[in-house]
Amino acid sequence: MENIADNVHIGELIAVSKVFLLNPYQMVTLLENGEMEVFENKEAFFEKYGNKETYDELSDWCELNNGKIFTKTK
Q: Which domain of life is it from (predicted)?
């Protein structure tokens, strides 16, 4: 299993948890189960999902001011 702390700072986790209306524990669980992803930048996100107006395969997504993108699948 991937160590989440290598990719996500606790401050990022707390900020994004407020957007997704989840607590940090729920966010970590979703990340561990692959139901949430973290992309280091837009290019990595676009490589997987493409650059389009809507993303039907995602229930929500959030871009932080440092460029990281968090996605939550349906």
A: Bacteria
The domain tally of the chain equals 1
Residue 71 has a pLDDT of: 96
What are the CA-CA distances from residue 35 to residues 26, 39, 61 (Å)?
11, 13, 12
Domain ranges, residue 30: 4-73
The answer to whether the CB of 63 falls within 8 A of the CB of 55 is no
CA distance 1 to 21: 25
Q: What are phi and psi of 64, to 5 degrees?
A: -85, 165
Looking at residue 24, its amino acid is P
**40-69: pLDDT as tens digits:** 999 999 999 999 989 999 999 999 999 999
Mean pLDDT estimate for the chain: 92
